[in-house]
Amino acid sequence: MKKHFSFLTLLVGMSVTTVAAPIQPQKAKQLAENFFKGSKNGGAKLKMSYQAPDETKSGNSLYYVINRGDNQGFVVVSGDTRTRAILAYSDKGYLNEEAIHENPSIHGMFIEFAEQIEWAQQNIADKPSESYKLLAARGDFKEPRHLIEPLLVVEKSNRNVNRPTPISWGQDWPFNLYSPTISDNTGRRYKTVSGCVATGIATVVRWHAWPARPKGSTSYTWRRTNSRMAINYDQQPAYDWTNMPEGVDGRGNDRRTGQRVTEVQADNIGRLLRDIGYAVRMNFGPAQTGGSGTLLSYAPATLVNNFSYDGRLQCIMRSNFSDAAWWAGIQDELTNYGPIVYAGYSNGGGHCFVVDGLAENRYVHVDWGWNYSSNCWTSIDVLEPGGEHGIGGGIGAFNRGHQMLRYFRPDGDVNPNPNPNPEPKPEPKPQPTPDTKGVFSVVKTVSPAQFYQEVNQRMTISVKNISNVAYNSYFKLSAVKQGSSYATNLTTSPNKIYVGSGSTKELSFYADLRNLEKGNYDLRISYVSNGKWTEMEESAGRMTISSRSMGAKVVATSALPTVTTFVGEAVRIEVPVMNTGDADFSGNVEMRANGTVIAGGEVALSASERATLAFSTNTRNFQSLKPGTYTLTISYGNGQSVTYGNSANLGSLIIKSKENPVISTGDVRLNSAFFYQNGRYVGSKYSTISKNADLTVRAYLYSSNGFDGSVKLFITDSYGKTAGNSAALESVNNIKLDKYGSGYVEFTVKQSELTGSRYYVNIIYNDGKKDICKSWDGVAFYVSAYNSYYGTSANNYPSDKGIEVKVKDITYGDAYIAVGANDENLVVGETNGIETVAVQSASLYPTVASETITIATAEAGMANIFSAAGAKVAEISLKEGNNTIAVSQFTPGVYFVKVANKTLKFVKK
């Protein structure tokens, strides 16, 4: 039960410290009281609703969520004085632990809060921040002044006029009306959700109310089902923007009228979300298996070519900008273009939302894409502006992998003039407008003429200004396929280009050709005249589009926070990755510290698959590293580098000297935990499991120095505890690990034992002197009666117009791969009253195979082969000795072989 404090407690005097320290619950409520005093309803009762546990320092909290009155707002207070004091706030609504964990975007952002605070504790000078000192010292603290009020509240045509209700959309019905349904071989149907990227983009498109209808077509392979998804936009009816209610609540009701949206309204909204989802190659999925996801970087090409948005629209990465430039871009986008589709990546996965307002001290207003629930002002930077911490800079600082869509406005709006402009600047002196004809001639056509269906294809074209006036504006490149009259916009120059009268200028364009069909194209150049695009009469040349195999390409989706440990103390290093290539990858992956391999193992990643690689550093090379700072890199295949952005340097490892070395007779650590229900894999760290089925936990362990003894595996609902909530949530096993060894143990708990919403799996053992439990090694997971914040089944929607696809099995979210962990059952005997079972000797080779594998066993028995998703694919009788088994018929991927009490693993190429 969480503690609550009286207002008498809040009246205790507080002093402004000069040394940074953790903020305790009482102090957090005092800060919240100070923050709310200057606002309306300032005297309403405060209630602590959530304390985020610190996964590195037991006993402290990373941040506090404090609600005011009954739906009268909330504030999120940092748990450390060296960061900005207030992380998020709102004058309406509420926020609690359930909301944070159930909404993907909120969850991802708050994981970032925790990661940034942990980074600050390890890397920032030990002194209080200016905002903490100011808030602690004043009882009349004022909310930061709004520079740009939330745009989703106001009309685009006149920002002084409020809409009847703010634009606030979600991912469930009616937004997923046209999203596909998956049915498995048991007959169960799973309705997919629209996806946070599609909902975020659609929210901004609704604000612009553009276009009347997309043009052209798009197609892609839906990775989860391997189905081909295609749509011809030219054959679809136009959008009726007046029949798209601006605010729709979680029950599918129009917020303005309080009535269920009509079928016509649902159809218009659903088609928009479908069109965007297909356009950005949405990997549709049910909410209970992780939801629908895609990359924001897929959006610019289709928004320009199919939805007729500004040709300069691009997805930019924060790692390529300074802090000042990034925030200047945010302010310019909100001022001159509109709301921002913003994305980030953390250890909890990717998250996407809409930024639509800006306040002093770099607070932004966020719509989480959850039907207006918990919208608030928040900071996407925990650290205050300035200082030497390098937030937003390169590797070595905490870098969050933030992205946003820039120059997001309709293509026809070449010279926007929003009203009002919060910081108006004088307009440049008008230049004479050239005549619309005879202005430019093409001097040199496109070079080269051969291009591929890839991003960033460079094209150079030279033009001459043959008019009698200078030109200073944009150029646009488009392509017309031979045999067609339809023009596809390829790209627009990112900046205005000056071409003097009589001068020649070489134009360089970088085009995304991934969605262009193979064939021959005629290229055209357009320029701005009288506020409109005017196409040059001459052709800019011809090009041929073809494809070439990229192969597997593994990239990191986020840079790593700094990893800190001590000499000889192995750590788990988690890296979120994606195979962005067009071929599956199966092979060795190695992590290096300044070039020295410190971890590695076999990994299989399908094309377009996301995963978190959890590296076990229990290796001889890691043990030999001296104190110092190391750069972390990852190689795969034949020496290719995993990159983030354009850099192979993914993060830093700091190894410190031990002040008082402790000699231990053995050690064991928890690397990862995989969860299974009803015989199926349902996820790992941060996953949500069902409250309606028993849970089997497979815990992967590793040792740096070897271990032989008893280990207690337990599940607790409190971070930092060293025992399970009950005896039924504990399992004691005798295990044996060689030096640098690894393997797993399993145990099953009844569904009736999991009565809470959040739990941690961890281990504890005794090294002969004391009990040892590393709280920060614990693997967190969540329990829900509905598996997600969407509880509606595929059979209970008001209407459904999406396609249905049958699959053999359902995959659950992004993969979590323990790199360097062997699939060997470590249990030698159990000490919890269960009859001791001796492990039968068995082995498998080779571990990477294309045709056959050999299983050697000491006695006859049965072998069951399972896919990585937990589905049984074969059952085989074994004789004593060697057994050769054909695997050529299996699809490429990872497989597990259960022989007696051992589980072996192999990768099918």
TrEMBL record:
Residues 1-20 form the signal peptide. Residues 409-437 are annotated as: Disordered. Keywords: Hydrolase, Protease, Signal, Thiol protease. Residues 417-433 have a biased composition (Pro residues). One of its GO terms (molecular function) is cysteine-type peptidase activity. Residues 20-103 form the Spi protease inhibitor domain. This is C10 family peptidase.
